[in-house]
Please model this.
Amino acid sequence: MHQEIDTLIITPADMGHIDQAAAASGLSSYGLMERAGQAVAATALRRFPGALRFAVLCGPGNNGGDGYVAARALQEVGACVAVYALGDPGALKGDAATAFAAFQGPVAPLVSYAPQPGDVVIDALFGAGLARDVPDEVAKTIEAVRRAVLPVLAVDLPSGVDGRTGQVRGAAFEAAATVTFMCRKPGHLLLPGKTLAGELEVFDIGIPARILARHADHMRVNTPAIWRLALPPQTGATHKYVRGHLAVFSGPATATGAARLSAMAGLRAGAGLVTLLSPRDALPANAAHLTAVMLKAIDNEADLAALLDDERLKTFVLGPGFGDAEKTRAYVKLLAERDRHLVLDADGISAFRDDPAVLFSFFAGGRARLVLTPHDGEFARLFPDLAADKTLSKIERAQKAASRSNGAVILKGADTVIAAPDGRALVNENAPHWLATAGSGDVLAGMVGAHLTQGMPPFEAAASAVWRHGEAGRIAGEGLTAEDLPDAIQPWPVA
Model:
């Protein structure tokens, strides 16, 4: 499949439109179901060669149709198969009815399924299109399988996981592996669906890339292919000012470490120069720990205004360990008025919790110059209505926040989402779980600042920093501390 198509994330609704468009183009919709079911059967045989029995649980829609095809394929190669149906399979319509008719074997009611040692469960009940809580009989089956500790192979998505949000609808299978078709869905990448899906296999069942691209929204998996064209050029004429001058605000003498992490990360990530803007009482503490990072005393708005007379200083990181909310608001206002780029993190975000609209007004209109890097708690301080709206997926929350703030938003977590004001969104998947450690976010803020100061647009700067941050975590290894991360930042990817 084409590399760009490989990065697509398709909502269940859009996948429905794609299926309709594929059928309208002349493709056999049953042929697509046949290939999907055969892929499930092949995966089951490859992953679970020691299965004593494949218990295929079929739902009342097309996901169930995939299950009947898989059951027939398994039966044809001599595997022991038992099929259980939710609802009356005689009431199936369309392709699912055709698949059921082609299966030559008994079908028992789902409620009669009793897990046996040696079973492998093939979950073909609901798939990615579920948008309601599972029925009680399904919830009871899920619990029985969980108690029996049986491996589950999910078709499209574990039943009970909402394919749009990744949230659990009442109860959900925890799959050892999931087989999906053509593209990933949000539920494969957003928590808790990401965890419940287990190992994910994406099969090309023959829908043309042009149809996928025509009906896809602006959601992708974060990879270098997305932002490679925005990488800073490297030529023989490159010098430190071409690579940009990044400034990071330090907190008071008792809280300087976070800003130094950001500053060092910015230098490692490619900024030509990095200056730490320090209160005078913190100068000795900062000077004792800095070598390649420069140091400048900044105590008030007048000091900052004078510094901003240097037009070469265009990008700032404010928030890590900063502490002073009133000064934060004054500094942000001044930076916005002077047309600077800003990465606002941690305390910088919390400083606007009482009136987020003030922050948004500073950067309203025109080109985006702001990058926000909240975790869920900080996000709720700036966007309380979006955080409280449980009908929104994490992707949708980030998209709405980016539009409202006219900035790029990095909504952090094990399923980090990066969103742009124009609606583009990326979900990151290369970060190891051990990146969840104190100071990791400070390093990320400095990396975003480094990319901005090298001339990358805010969305691309944010996305590339998140990806390089994940790679640094992977290279530093389990047990890392934030101090390890700057040294693990790798050069720009070239492949």
